[in-house]
Amino acid sequence: MSSHDVLGRTEGGDLRLVGLTKRYGSFTAVDDLSLTIPQGSFFALLGASGCGKTTTLRMISGLEDPTIGQIHLGDQEVTDLKPYRRPVNTVFQNYALFPHLDIYENVAFGLRRRGVKDVKTAVVDMLNLVELGHLAKRKPTQLSGGQQQRIALARALINQPQVLLLDEPLGALDLKLRRQMQIELKRIQTEVGLTFVHVTHDQEEAMTMADTIAVMNHGRIEQLGSPAELYENPATTFVANFLGQSNLIQAAVEGETDGVVTVSAHGQQLKLDAKRCRSTSGKIILGVRPEKVQIATDRADVPAGFNALTGGKVVDTSFIGVSTQYLVQMPSGEELSVFEQNTGRTIQRPGTEVVVYWDPSQGFGLEGTQDIEAGADADEEAAA
Amino acid sequence: MTTLTEAPAPVEERAPERKPRRNFTPWALLLPGLLWLTVFFLVPILTSVSASVQTGNYDDGFKLTWHFANYKDALTKFGPQYYHSLVYSLLTTVFCLALAYPVAYFIAFKGGRWKTLLMALVIVPSFTSFLIRTIAWKTILADNGSVVHALNDLHLLKITTALGWTVGNHVLASPAAVVCGMVYNFLPFTILPLYTSLEKIDPRLHEAGADLYCGPFQTWRRVTLPLSMPGVIGGTLLTFIPAVGDYINAQLLGNPNTTVVGQRIEDLFLRQSDGYPVGSAMSVVMMVGTLVIVMTYIWRAGTEDLL
Amino acid sequence: MATQTISAPAPADGSAPLKVRRKSPLAWAKQHVLLAVTFVVFVFMLLPNAVILWMSFNQPDGKFNYTWNKFSLDAWKNPCSNSTMCHSIGLSLEIGVVATIIATILGTMISFAMVRHRFKARSGINALLFLPMAAPEVVMGATLAALFFNTIGPGAMGFWTITIAHVMFCISYVVVTVKSRLAGMDPTLERAAEDLYATPTQTFMKVTLPLVAPGIGAAALLAFAISIDDYIITVFTAGNSETFPMYIFGSVQRAYPAQIDVIGSLMLLGTMTVIAVSQILNQMRTSRKK
Fold first, then answer.
1. Same domain for A254 and A155?
2. Is B307 on the interface with A (CB under 8 A)?
3. A238 within domain boundaries
4. Is C23 exposed, middle or buried (0-12, 13-18, 19+ CB in 10 A)?
5. Which chains touch C (3 or more CB pairs under 8 A)?
6. Which helix (H) or strand (E) holds B111?
7. How far is the C-alpha of B174 from the C-alpha of B182, rounded, in Å?
8. Helix %, strand %, coil % of chain C (to 5)
9. Which residues, if any, are the signal sequence (chain A) (predicted)?
């Protein structure tokens, strides 16, 4: 055993990754990743399958050796420490509960391996924290998916690691249970105050739980920030498409005055907040979230100062209760999505000529040289 | 309230419940095979119990005389043979397990896309008659062969001879050769069940072990070994049981001082006109002895919570 | 905002340039211990087969082909120069085929009864099926010999007594193999066939049998392999007949010709060829379907 105290904790536990790279032959899974995760935060690595998020997690846990780079936990460098010497524990994707041990022994496993003699109080407390105290004598196979998930969490948490790693922890659960567990995980994290690093392909899961999200793509961090920052002000088309949906429109900058950028798209003039633009010259991509866009049948209904695109035609209308989703085709053939809240307005039938409009402060501008479709179907791929 | 709980007496007779039709199909399917096993396996085994207390010879016939002295003969006259059978089969089981575990572990967890090929290589040798393969060890371990030369050069042969494992300057015709042949013959029977149970273990459990403060040895001890116990038990039984009865290796690779029970039973049955009762008694002793050892083993392995 | 301290791509803080990490030689050796042990054990397991092939090209000096003398193709040119040996091979093959057919039919019937029907006395039947696999061969052989001595006498023993014995110990192996295949089969397939107007006979012939056939085939192969290789039980039930294993065993006392090694090599090469060809045919069939 290493020189930590019984619970394996040392002081000052920021997790720092420095220039972390992992190559498998000629394939680079993680590419020069540098990151600091402060102690006590709930951090999510979000990305499609194969983006390197799981490899990053496995390098933090020690199950994978980095090709280049260092991992620091507080003042301690842990890069060369074997997984069983790191104050880091993992909640595995398929839970990896030991089938030959009962729930009690599964939870007690880590403490016993570190020579803790009296584990009873800790195990009972931990089982109560995940509200499964009554199942202590069962075998893992006798538990439901959600219960196994909570045991896996308890088994890792009982060791009071400096960092808890969660590898797609809710992937195997059905939607309803997933929602419930998201709230529960967040509650437990707040209660125990440990650093949680969470890997997922589910953007909703990441946004619900994490304080900070790193969106990963091709082994690199595409953008880092709070869920709101990422959603409201994506830095790339990949983030714009991967986190929720975006209407992305090719546009050309015409000029900038008083912090307002004027662009032309679909032969019409549109305005953008310069602070929300990653580029303010030449060709850019103008983005706006579907729920910020509204439609009207008459140009006169558009409030003054709003961006408006005319000449569109509704090609599809889906009424889904809380909202109505429209697909509006522009004369160029490009399609825009509009999510309209169900506030009692008339639902437009397909075929209706409409004007789409939005508040200029809600749009964002991206570099014009990127692939406009990047990340658009990555979410489905990952979910499949 | 009582009126509600009291159910009204049934007015109408319910339709008579249909009796399930007796199904003879399973018995028709089972009968020929079970009859075969009964007549040619169970009955002979049971008659041999009675034969073990008879006297007589092949020319005059045998009579049931409750001659329990046959057992005294069977137990006292063949002490070395029981000892050899037991020691060789136990050594074989231990060596087989020690060699098979790393091999099965390697194939199951590190085999990758070579898994099927490696498992095929375990089975392939048995396409050749096991007798020819056992006799091939006569060539490998021959006095002028490289194995004996190497052992001589390393001065190991003197040590093994002093220990009684080999005889003089030979490896052949010695206890060591017999055990080597037995290990060779039974190794696949240990590897197969071990591989099957190791292969079922999710490798992510190893990672979970490492994550929860187990070094490589602790991971094996606390996770892999308990989960592979069915394979360990199956493999050792599949090795030990036939090894107890085996006398081919002792006959082909041993010497007159390495004889085992099987050789004596064959001798008594096939080459001595009055050996049938004592031979039967030896068979019974061997069967009961094996059964006791196997049962004790299973019982111990079962109650020790699989280590 | 609580997350201000989080910094994306860390600035170069003047620390030493990061080097590609390499494993120490000790760690490498540790990792390959398992590989080395496996390799040695495989050599141990495959060595006799190599020796057999090697010795089949030997011209023995004397009666016993145990030590290398000089290269010769004689044994390969006349594998049957010794007619006793080839007769014994013929007898072994005959017994193997007959015993396999009977054991496979009886064993398959038992498997169907055990998997598809409910009846009492299951555990007793299971024990009866398990015991022949667990009992020492020498005991089965000896007691069976006694039965035949006492009923038909030693003179009448031969082909049929050997076959009877082989069927006896093959049945259990057939049951184990076919049962696992049957148990792994989805019973709703049979219900589906019935739903689609198949009579019980048609269901069995068109659905059940084709699905279980690979299991029955594997069981038959196993039974044949066990029968043709058996020595101990055979020697007790053979009377004056001599099977190939008995011939080999006897040769150790009389004379051990290189022809035995030729047969041993042929057994290995023949089976491997059959497997390779069936694999290739299988692959061709699946690729054509695509």
1. no
2. no
3. no
4. exposed
5. A, B
6. none
7. 13
8. 70, 0, 25
9. none
Distance CA A275, CA C133 (A): 82
Kindly state whether residue A240 falls inside one of the protein's structural domains: no
The ipTM, to two decimals, is: 0.86
Q: Do A19 and C18 touch (CB under 8 A)?
A: yes
User: Closest partner residue to A99 among B207, B213, B227, by Cβ?
Assistant: B227
Touching A (3+ Cβ pairs <8 A), the chains are B, C
Record: contact C272-B105, CB cut-off 8 A: no
Taking Cα atoms as reference points, which of A296, A89, A33, C140 lies closest to residue B245? C140
Number of domains in chain A: 3
- Bridge partners (DSSP) of residue A216 are A221
* A214 and A266 fall within a common domain: no
Check: CB of residue A42 under 8 Å from CB of residue A221.
Answer: no
Interior/surface letters A356-380, b for 16+ CB within 10 angstroms, e for the rest = bbbbbebbbbbebebebebbbebbe
Assigned CATH class of C83-256: mainly alpha
CATH number of the domain residue A50 falls in = 3.40.50.300
Token digits of residue B177 = 């050769």
CA distance C141 to C161: 11
- pLDDT tens string, chain B, 307 residues long: the values are 444 445 555 555 556 666 556 677 888 899 999 999 999 999 999 888 888 888 877 777 777 788 888 898 888 889 999 999 999 999 999 999 999 999 999 999 998 888 888 998 999 898 899 999 999 999 999 988 888 888 888 888 888 888 888 888 888 999 999 999 999 999 999 999 999 999 999 999 999 999 999 988 999 999 999 999 999 999 999 999 999 999 999 999 999 999 999 999 999 888 887 888 888 899 889 989 998 998 888 888 765 443 3
CA distance A119 to A116: 6
The strand pair at A353-358 and A323-329 is best described as: unpaired
Alpha helices in chain A (DSSP H): 53-61, 103-113, 120-129, 145-157, 175-192, 203-209, 227-232, 237-242, 378-383
Residue length of chain B: 307
Residue A379 belongs to domain spanning: 246-288+364-384
Looking at the structure, tell me whether residues A333 and A381 fall in a common domain: no
Residue B21 in contact with residue B256, Cβ under 8 Å? no
How far apart are alpha carbons B187 and B179 in whole angstroms? 12
Residue that the structure tokens 């091939």 belong to:
B136
Closest chain A residue to the Cα of B204, Cα to Cα: A96
Residues in chain A, total: 384
Tokens standing for residue A219: 């082994």
Same domain, A69 and A217: yes
Helix axes B276-303, B43-51, angle to 10 degrees: 120
What dotted CATH number matches B77-303? Answer: 1.10.3720.10
* Residue A43 vs residues A238, B237, C70, C232: alpha-carbon distances, Å: 20, 52, 75, 69
Q: How far is CA B32 from the centre of its chain?
A: 28
